[in-house]
Request: fold
Amino acid sequence: MNVLIIYAHHEPTSFTAAMKNIAVQALEADGHNVVVSDLYGQGFSAVAQKWDFVTTSGNHFNYMSEQKHAANLQMSFSPDILGEIQKLQAADTLLIISPIWWFSVPAILKGWFDRVLAMGVAWDTGKFYENGLMRGKQAMLLMAGGHPAEYYKVNGRHGANPNQILHPINHGTLAFCGFNVHEPFVALNVISANNLSREKALKDLEFRVKNIPHSPQWLTLYA
Reply:
């Protein structure tokens, strides 16, 4: 497989970083080609703005319309966006490694969704979900949550389980673009976990990454 990992954490000694390292090691050990986009390390901008395009249509500025315009003009996106689009196009599997923040993801990762999963590139008019432009590619979230498992239940403190929390990304972003979405891997209680618990979580992650082709399909289970 050609695997693109989108990694969103600022601290190289974090548990999220350990997840990224294990994923890379496991995939490369099995002979897969792995490319990592370290969003914080790259200084990737989360802000969608006019400067994301080499040229604009000259009409009233509408970001999605300008994305479509850029896609039609031989990918006339700014270099940082174009580089990510090229990585995405070359990959057949997308892994997103991030903490869960505010029932979602860090702003830098949301900015990657906004700027890279562009109209005319990842989706288009009438070309989403089963007709999305990313059809044929696999995608899976590898996430870290700080609180214990009992918080992540319908009757728990957060009032939702991890799959419910991640539904907007799995369905409204990845499946919308046509990805074949796998059930996410979510490590919980990473703030307070002891070394044994962390090691087990990383072993579980390694197993999931090594068995992506056989991983449960999120759309089948949770759509």
Remarks:
- The mean pLDDT is 93.
- The chain has one domain: 2-222.
- The first strand starts at residue 2 and ends at 7.
- The domain at 2-222 is CATH 3.40.50.360 (Rossmann fold).
